[in-house]
Every structure is written in C-alpha cells, then in structure tokens.
Amino acid sequence: MTGFNRRQFLEGSAGVAAAATLGTGTAVFPSAAHAQSMTFKPEKGATLRVLRWSRFVQGDIDAYMANVKKFTEATGVQVRVDNETWEDVRPKAAVAANTGAGPDIILSTNDDANLYPDKLLDVTDLAEYLGKKYGGWYPAAQAFMRPDGKKWIGLPLGASGSLIVYRQSMVKAAGFDAFPKTTDDFLKLYKALKEKGTPGGMALGNATGDSTWTNWLVWAFGGKLVDKSNKVVIDSPETLKALEYAKELYANFIPGTLSWLDPNNNKAFLDGQISVTNNGISIYYAAKNSQDPKIKEMAADISHAVFPIGPVGVPTESHLFFNQMVMKYTKYPQAAKEFLRFMMERPQFDDWLQGGGGYVAQPLADYEKNPIWSVDPKHTPYRDSVKNLRPAGYEGKLGYASAGAAADFIIPNMVAEAASGSKSPKEAAERAQKRAERYYKV
Questions:
Q1: What b/e string do you get for 149-182 counting C-beta neighbours within 10 Å, with b at 16 or more?
Q2: pLDDT (tens digit, 9 = 90+) per residue, 321-337?
Q3: Are 285 and 59 in contact (CB under 8 A)?
Q4: What is the residue extent of each domain of the chain?
Q5: Contact 57/359 with Cβ under 8 angstroms?
Q6: How far apart are CA 116 and CA 153, in angstroms?
Q7: Cα 131 from Cα 401, distance rounded (Å)
Q8: 413 pLDDT above the threshold of 60
Q9: Fewest C-beta atoms under 10 Å: which of 162, 186, 265, 296?
C-alpha cells in the first residue's frame, strides 16, 4: 500500500486497539458474528432520492435495484434512484450542495466530497461500525472519505479498476508471450502492435475513469502533482521524462484518442479496432454476455494485467474511486444512514459485487473473500484495486485542492498536450503547474 501506514489503517477501522495486523497490512478484526449490530431508525414518513452514476455493466444496476427493493420491503422507506453519467453527476452534486436541495444521497467519484465537506452529513458512526465488522477500510478508502483523520464525510463504495485489457492472440503475434511488466517493454509492445496493424489506444479526453492511466504514467517516472506539503511540483525533470515517453507511446495509438471519453475505448475494443487499452472489467463482461456470436467468442481471447512498472521501480496504480455522500440538507438523515448501512452489509454487498461481475472492487477487507474474485481467473486482477490504489492527490493531503485539480483534468490535459505535440513537454508541464497552483494556493 502506497503513502499510508498501518496506524492510519487501524484508526480508519474504528480504532480497535487490540487489532493485530498481518504482514500484508490487512487488519484483523472481530468477525461479523461477534461485531455489535447497528441500525438507524428511519424518520416517520421518510422517502429517499439517490443520484448515482450510470452502469457500465447491467448486472451492477440490476443487483443494486434488487437491494433497494429489499430495503424498502424491510423499512417501508420508498427510494427513487436516478442514474447519470459520471460527467453529469459531478455538476449536479455541486449544484445540490450549493443550493441545499436535491438528492438525499449522491454516489460520485474520487474525492469530490472534498469540494463541499461542510455540506455533507457526518457518517463517522456508520463508517466505524462497518470498518470494525468487515475487516477494516483500506487506507485509500479512508483517505478519500476521512481527510482530516477524524470525521468521515462520506462512505467508500469501492473502485473500478483501471487495468490493462488486451487480446492475448494479438499480443502474442506481436512477439510477446506474456504481457510486459516494464514501461520499456510496454512501449515496444505498442510499436509492434502498430506494425502488425493491430494498434492499441487509451483515452486522452476528459474521461472521468479511463484517463486515470495518465496518473500512472506520471507517477511511474517519479513525477507528481504535489509533494507532501501540498506544494505544486508537477513541472519537474521526472514529469518531463514521463511526457517524452507519452509522445513515443501516443505515436502508436489508433487515431482519435484525444477526444475519447469513457465509452469510446470499450466500443473500439469490442469492434476489433484496438488490441490493448485500459479499462474496468466492463469490456470482458460485455463480451461474455453479448448476443453477438463474434463478440462473445472474443471473450476467450481477452485477458487483464496490472500496469507495467516504470523507472521508480514500484507499482503506481490509479483507479476510479467511488464514494457515497449524504447531503446535510436531507430531511431524513436517519433513513439515509440506514440505507447505506443496509446496502453495505454482507448479504446485500456480496450480491452487488457478484452482480457487477467484478466491475467494482470492495473498500472493506473482508469482501476480498467474495466468490466473484475466484470464480474466473480473469476477474482476480481487479480484486485489489482499492487496496493498491494511489489517490489522485498523491503525494499531498486530500482536500478541496486535490478534488478541484482532479475535476479539472489537469494531468490528463497535460499528457494529451505533450503526447499530441500541441505543446512541448516543457510547455505542457508549465501550464499544468500554473493551473494546479490556482487550487493549491499558498
């Protein structure tokens, strides 16, 4: 785990002093059977409205709505669920926070909660209960939702892993028996795939999920947006090396990736236009469940791998984190907290993980045991996405600045500018530096 320590892990998991830790950094807590139960009594006449991001796999929303129905049957609380794209959830959440009206619960991305923490309901009691009961929150999960180390301003939901999705046959035809494990060999693969007429491509537009590969790229060469004191340091020799690499890599991309948003690489891959990209498990899920025999046949040729390691010599994984926020203006705070508790308890959460086919990785350690991660070996690489996640605000402290910089796509824009040649690497880094400094004001 990067950038966090075991003390933070234990504090984020109800501060159980007696908890022992394994060599992996996973805390051992009382089993669910021994954890004290907690419920919140919904207010009389309570109803809830939930705004969440649209599904990329049908099983996600099917299982989620089945759990919503179970909640209503158990409590009598009617729940309306609205679905929007990731790009639309963020502005709608901001409007709700600023006007004090709108959905009671919002499921959003990364550390959007830090854009308006004073507008969110304190859910510390619920977070600590769940952490104690289900093996503890992973450090990255608590970093997003507990930035001050004390109060939880939201509840982690999980993350959609940004891993390499590739056609095994095409990678082998390009001369590689296994997927590259270093950035040098990754570049060689992309060059070979282009020569074979089976190029790859990754999103360089303002894609909320799929542009996260640009964080990996910068970190892999030792670059970072800010240092530990939140000083902006993106204009650095390490970043310039990353951007020079980006130019070489981009030269082998399929045309059009500068405008790609989250659905584009899914479509290009399933259409047979590209052989390698980065994505959640949704491409594989879509292939397996397709009614088109040709696409369904493709599933056997699809495989997944973690991103290669760069000159820094350690993994630098960046994934799309999902949060759950209860708006402070809600008329039914008890009902809202009870809804989140119900949805995160094992019977419901296990069903949802399985329904999503591995699209979302859990934020609580106990859910590593879910059968979805072992039923198909192609699912397993996505299992530890939250455990291995490095927050986008690395290496600084998360807060308004990190959330604003991420929402403004500073890193993806910088990489796109340098990779495409619209700016030199130095010009792109200088522009990113100035943009970031507007958020990280001294």
A1: eeebbbbbbbbbbbbbbbbbebbeebebeebbee
A2: 999 999 999 999 999 99
A3: yes
A4: 6-13+20-161+319-382, 165-317+408-439
A5: yes
A6: 10
A7: 27
A8: yes
A9: 296
